[in-house]
Amino acid sequence: MGQNETAHAPTDDASGETEEFDPIGTLTLIAIYFVILVLSWVYIYYIEFLGRDLVVVG
Amino acid sequence: MHIHNYEKIWLAASVLLILLLLGSVTYGAVGPGVAMVSDSEQAIDAGGLDDDDRFSEPRVEQVGENEYEAYVVAYQFGFQPDPIVVPENSTVTFYVTSRDVIHGFEVAGTNANTMVVPGEVSKITVETDDRQEYGLICNEYCGAGHHVMEGKVNVVSQAEFDDRNDGGNGE
Q1: For chain A, what is the domain count?
Q2: Tens-digit pLDDT profile for chain B (171 aa)?
Q3: Does B40 map to a domain?
Q4: Which of A54, B55, B66, B147 could bond to B110 as cystine, CB 3.0-4.6 Å?
């Protein structure tokens, strides 16, 4: 799939305008990674860290 | 320069992520008041702890309404006092120092955790919740007995704490 897209790219660039290169799969993957990252951070910081006893306040 | 639309989305998302991380830490400091181990304490003579007001007699002391200070000495291989007894739902400041080598002071399973350096006083303030017994461990390798160096932090009811302090002189 990737090869085909790169093969087409130069002609598209020459004609300009239209964007045929739409890596929707990559976008979806990165979106999923992003969601995992955000959820992990929320869990690690807000639940595990702040939820523990004896939070150091000074 | 041509930037693909998807690339703009990824850029925006990564900036958003950075802001989220920074925002959380800021929230932690402003909201729940998360702080670092204080470096404001004066250096002391590690060899002269027996003449020190605070550390000649390691203890827990009431310093205000619902405010307590615990003076703790770490040594090879243990902590004084043992157990460290503090009342529930109070603010406790630990002043921890070492009489020999570098130790760690970690109340197991909690965020109370600091290095203990001879000649320095580590100060951390925490808020206790309900009654509970915590383990206290050394997390810096301090010698042959490091693995057996442990103590206890007991969070007890106010009544029990008062009892111990009134009647527990011989302890």
Answers
A1: 1
A2: 888 888 899 899 999 999 999 999 999 999 888 988 877 888 888 888 888 888 988 989 899 889 999 999 999 999 989 899 999 999 999 999 999 999 999 999 999 999 999 999 999 999 999 999 999 999 999 999 999 999 999 999 988 888 887 755 444
A3: no
A4: A54
**d(Cα B17, Cα B121) in Å, to the nearest integer?**
37
Q: Please tell me whether residues B51 and B118 are part of one structural domain.
A: yes
CB atoms within 10 A of CB B8: 10
Cα-trace Rg, chain A: 22
ipTM score: 0.73
Do residues B71 and B112 lie in contact, with contact meaning Cβ atoms separated by under 8 Å?
Answer: no
B111, B128, B136: best mutation site toward chain A, by most A Cβ within 10 Å? B111
CA dist A24 and A29 (Å) reads 9
Domain identity same for B76 and B55: yes
Q: Is A14 on the interface with B (CB under 8 A)?
A: no
Across the interface, do A50 and B32 touch by the CB < 8 Å criterion? yes
Judged by CB atoms closer than 8 Å, whether chains meet at A34 and B125 is answered as no
Kindly state whether residue B74 falls inside one of the protein's structural domains. Answer: yes
Q: Which residues of B touch A52 (CB under 8 A)?
A: 109-111
* Pairing outcome for strands B59-64 and B122-127: unpaired
Asked if B123 and B83 sit in the same domain, the reply is yes
The answer to whether B125 faces chain A, any CB pair under 8 Å, is yes
Question: Chain B within 8 Å of A45 (Cβ-Cβ)?
Answer: yes
The answer to whether position A58 is within a domain reads: no
What is the span of the domain harbouring residue A35? Answer: 2-51
